Amino acid sequence: MASPLEQAICAIISTFQKYAHHSGDKHKLCQAELKELLQKELPTWTPTELRECDYNKFMGMLDTNKDCAVDFVEYVRSLACLCVYCHEYFKDCPREPPCSQ
To answer: What's the total number of domains in the chain?
Structure first.
């Protein structure tokens, strides 16, 4: 049986692949794919009141090479930043997991 960290790595990869193939390029997320991924995979962390211009700004931040798409490296960097943010936020909390299992 895979360890929780191994499962997490598999989930990160398979989630990217699940959404990246919609527009034809299985190696990049276009803005619509990124928006769908955020809404479906991070629903409690994605405000429902985000407007299209908010997604444009978010896409602009993640798209570091400015090719109008988020590749796997950009996607993983964003998840790493999110993990660092959560770690900092929860570091003084009790040792219980910050997320429900």
So the answer is: 1
**Rounded to the nearest 5 degrees, what angle is found at the Cα of 5, between the Cα atoms of 73 and 55?**
40
Both tokens assigned to 4? 């929780």
Cβ-Cβ contacts under 8 Å for 74 (sequence gap 6 or more): 62, 63, 64, 65
Q: What is the pLDDT of residues 3-27, one digit of tens each?
A: 999 999 999 999 999 999 877 889 9
| Residue 13 CB contacts under 8 Å (≥ 6 apart), including other chains | none
Host domain of residue 75: 4-90
Whether 88 and 81 have beta carbons less than 8 Å apart is answered as no
| First-to-final CA distance of the chain | 17
Indicate which CATH number applies to the domain containing 51: 1.10.238.10
